[in-house]
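User: Structure please.
Assistant: Input sequence and predicted structure:
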Amino acid sequence: GEWQRALQHFHTMLQKGSKPDMITCNAAISACEKGAAWQKALQLWLLMSQNDVESSTITCSAVISACGKGNEWENALQMFRVMMQRQIESDTVMFGAAISACEKGLEWEKVLRFFGAMAGCRLAMDMITFNAAISAFEKVSEWEKALQLFSLMSQNSLKSSVITLSAAISACEKAGKW
């Protein structure tokens, strides 16, 4: 795949004596994220630390997302905690990646905590964040919470997508509430 080619170029660059920097590492980690290669993404992040390359919000979001896409929600949340400890500025994308990882792990209670934390950080919630959260509630038949978020989405002037509507309808259907 493309992510493997990107990693090959990255390793070739290192073999030729180039030092990794934030931009090249972020590009390689983002490639891993697109391929759900969470282990490679974590290895690259460790390489950054070993070479005193600073992590950015982009780095963190990509590693968290790679873990989430690889169904490694626990690793995604551990990475989120490490980033918070290192006081790396969080943003909607980083929280969204964590929420999406929780959704894949059926960890709807953690989704609620992340929503609360986003509000505490005064971060705007976007459609992607809402979709992941509503989907998390749909998967565990928490239809009331799914509909509450659906309503909150409108209150935040966000338009719903086909994904949003499907997840909300499915939550009600699974609970027999239609």
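The chain has a mean pLDDT of 90.
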